[in-house]
Amino acid sequence: MLLLTWFEENRRDFPWRATTSPYEIAVAEALLQKTAATNALQVYPEFLEQFPDINALAQANSESVQETLYPLGLPARARRLHQMAREVVETYNGEFPATEKELRELPGAGPYGAAAIACQAFGESVPMIDINVMRIFHRVFSVPFKPRNAPTQALRALVLEYMPEGKAREYNLALLDLGAAACHARNPECEICPLCSLCDYNLSHNHEEPSDE
Ligand code: SF4
């Protein structure tokens, strides 16, 4: 698959990609909401040092959780992450539920966070669809793009259709990295994109007329 071949050479490495711990992935997803990965990186190790597991976070007081995330702003995010930890400890005896469906019920997880934990920690073959993935599929397949809306079932089915069997994690992360490396919101760099030969957007915008010579 073109995308996965590209990903092997171009993948970004982050500490949250080197773990299958649902807790560590949940923390990363909370930090990454509305925050660039480079900024989240500045807080992630310290957060895990201070709250190394779900029980430590659940037992912490709210102020210390908010203080640790203070450099990233958005105190509501600290509250939600703290609530999630308490819910996992109180309702699930400290073990994250293992399916996207159950994870969606956790406070603060949201559809994207639930998919990210289900796929990366538990190997469930579910699509992780954020605005960048929506944009890529909109451009490649000319499907509607409504960034303020949740992904439609049709889009979810389309993303799933191209997911290689047994490679859900690589596929999802490859799409994220493609959005960061080439398929920017403005001025996509189609010339370095592995999907350029089959992308509707590229073919309609960058089509060169054959030379007469
Ligand atoms: S070819 Fe261009 S528009 Fe299409 S997916 Fe790649 S970067 Fe995005």
Describe the protein's architecture and organization:
With 213 residues, the chain is mainly alpha-helical. It folds into 2 domains: 11-122, Hypothetical protein, domain 2 (Endonuclease III, domain 1, Orthogonal Bundle); 131-205, Helix-hairpin-Helix base-excision DNA repair enzymes (C-terminal) (Endonuclease Iii, domain 2, Orthogonal Bundle), CATH 1.10.1670. 58% of the residues lie in helices and 0% in strands. It is built from 12 helices and no strands. The protein is elongated. The protein binds iron/sulfur cluster (SF4). Iron/sulfur cluster (SF4) binds at residues 136, 139-140, 182-183, 188-190, 193, 195-196, 199, 201-202. The site of iron/sulfur cluster has 14 residues, from helix 9 and helix 12.
Structural class: mainly alpha
- Taken in chain order, the helices and strands follow as HHHHHHHHHHHH
Which geometry do the CA atoms define? elongated
Low-confidence stretches: 209-213
User: Looking at CATH, which topology of the largest domain would you report?
Assistant: Endonuclease III, domain 1
